[in-house]
């Protein structure tokens, strides 16, 4: 649910009476769409999102999801291992 500068669940309240988690609309320089926020709030992973920027200024791609403590977590693609070929 859109709450201005952040997203929260439908029953969001700061006093803990309902749902008590929320997250910023901008995460690591990437603006989260309402559809992506809905997926996260419903406990799903987003599709692979591009355009995040690390603290060191490098861009990266990741999926977003909620962890067990209702914090936003990045899920990175597994890198394909490069097999080294040896000439005999």
The helix content, as a percent range, equals under 10%
- Going across the biggest sheet, name each strand in turn: 5-6-7
Number of helices: 1
How many strand elements?
7
Calculate the terminal CA-CA distance, rounded to whole Å: 61 Å
The poorly predicted ranges are none
Average pLDDT figure: 84
Topology pattern, helix = H, strand = E: EEEEHEEE
The profile of the biggest β sheet is: 3 strands, antiparallel
Net shape:
elongated
Structural class: mainly beta
Strand content: 25-35%
Indicate the radius of gyration in whole angstroms. Answer: 17 Å
Fill in the keyword field for this structure.
88 residues; mainly beta; two-stranded antiparallel sheet; 1 helix; 9% helix; elongated
Give your account of this protein's structure:
- The chain is mostly beta strands.
- Helix content is 9%, strand content 31%.
- The strands form three sheets. The chain has a three-stranded antiparallel β-sheet with strand order 5-6-7. It has a two-stranded antiparallel sheet with strand order 1-2. Strands 3-4 form a two-stranded antiparallel sheet.
- It is elongated and about 65 Å long.
Compile the SSE list and pairings:
Layout: E1 6-8, E2 22-24, E3 26-27, E4 30-31, H1 34-41, E5 49-53, E6 59-66, E7 72-75
Antiparallel strand pairs: 1-2, 3-4, 5-6, 6-7
What is this structure, in a nutshell?
This protein has 88 residues and is mostly beta strands.
